[in-house]
Amino acid sequence: MANIKTFYLPDLGEGLPDATIVEWHVKEGDTIKLDAPLVSMETAKAVVDVPSPYTGKVTKLHGAAGDIIETGAALAEFEPDPNAKQRAEAESTGHHHGPKKGAGSPAPDHKVVASDEGGEIESEGKADREDEGTVVGAMISGNTVHVEQASSVGGVKAVPAVRALAKKLKVDLTRVKPTGADGVVTLADVKNAAANGTAALGAAPARSVPASAGRHLAPELPEPGPAPSRTPVSLAGKPVRTAPPSVAVTGQPEQLKGVRRNMARVMAEAHANVVPTTLVDDADLHAWIGKQDITARLIRAIVAACKAVPALNAWFDGKNLTRTLHQHVDIGIAVDTEEGLFVPALRNADVLDGAGIRSAIKRLRTSVEDRSIPASELSGYTISLSNFGMFAGRYATPVVVPPCVAIIGAGKLSHDVVAVMGGIEVHRRMPISLTFDHRAATGGEAARFLKALLDDLAMPN
């Protein structure tokens, strides 16, 4: 009997739970050599070529292009060549090739501590982890599985996700026939009810009143007649849709992958673990002399504010209630792409001049666009900047991603009428939004930080 070896998707060193198949470099039945390219996998940061762990025949491929494979799940099966030199079973390849621990394995007591130097993560526990930097911030991972429990509300058993879907599709859960265990309404039940229109909200039949209960004081209304049937043509003679959107629709739902998939995870984590508060004001740029680099001025102003109020240039550990103030300033610059949001770190912003800032931002943007940016440059920043005003919008409530404490949002420049001594003038102004984690900083600290930032932006040059 052939000796079949199963190869599991390795941890690609980014702390992400899955990756997407981009392209197989072999097909079933092909012969491949050790360390030859096996498959290209897309993560939240880059497209990674995964090498073959064996020399031999490929007997099975698990998944096709576009499929999402969980880290530790089976990726391919091989029949190793007994006459070829193979890698020793215990020899490290730089990845973890074994499957994940089962549910019965105890999760290690893992704690992540932010270092004073910034960007370094110190692990405490039974096992060290790979870098856990993400596209939009650092997120702690673990082996604990969280299971939603079905709760009974109004006589209907369903998990929160099912109730949310029913609300979105306007389905009355009390009229949905449950097919799950113990009478639990499932996602499929809600989708089927939405498709056939049998449980639409507001369509429940009125309760019958027995004759012995007496008559209402209000006058009786005539019984409603049959509802008019819907036709595929409107009164104006134009075609109309008569079925719910879920019956015949193309392109929905779309499975989130790569950058967008990880962005969704990180944003949800941030929303659940941060107490955000936002202050807004306008920076008056009327005194600026000549044409100036707006982004460079914003970064210079953030550095000045960080030095004036260090409380917002910090990391906060909500579990242990510890705060790490940073002497240096590494600014996470939000970069919008078609694939999703990247936040590369502009290191040592506090020692760069205008030309250095522009050069560093250009390098970061180029490496993001060609997906060559290393994972180390997508985490470890001490404060963030979102210059969304280059597209549209005045004020915003940007998302603070732990462990950072604050993020600055710069809106679209405008010419506003302002009051001055003895009359009015038209000044160019920039809307500024400061969102901070109120657990780690006071309102007074945030206000002083914002004032220091506005004061620097108001300088002539």
From TrEMBL:
- What protein name does the entry list? Dihydrolipoamide acetyltransferase component of pyruvate dehydrogenase complex
Which PANTHER family does the record match to this protein? DIHYDROLIPOAMIDE ACETYLTRANSFERASE COMPONENT OF PYRUVATE DEHYDROGENASE COMPLEX (PTHR43178)
What InterPro entries does the entry give? Answer: 2-oxoA_DH_lipoyl-BS, 2-oxoacid_DH_actylTfrase, 2-oxoacid_DH_E2_comp, Biotin_lipoyl, CAT-like_dom_sf, E3-bd_dom_sf, PSBD, Single_hybrid_motif
Q: Where is the Peripheral subunit-binding (PSBD) domain?
A: 157-194
Q: What is its EC number?
A: 2.3.1.-
Q: What class of enzyme is it?
A: transferase
The answer to whether the entry has keyword Transferase is yes
What organism is recorded for this protein?
Answer: Dyella japonica A8
* Record-annotated Lipoyl-binding domain positions: 4-79
Show the GO MF annotations.
Answer: acetyltransferase activity; lipoic acid binding
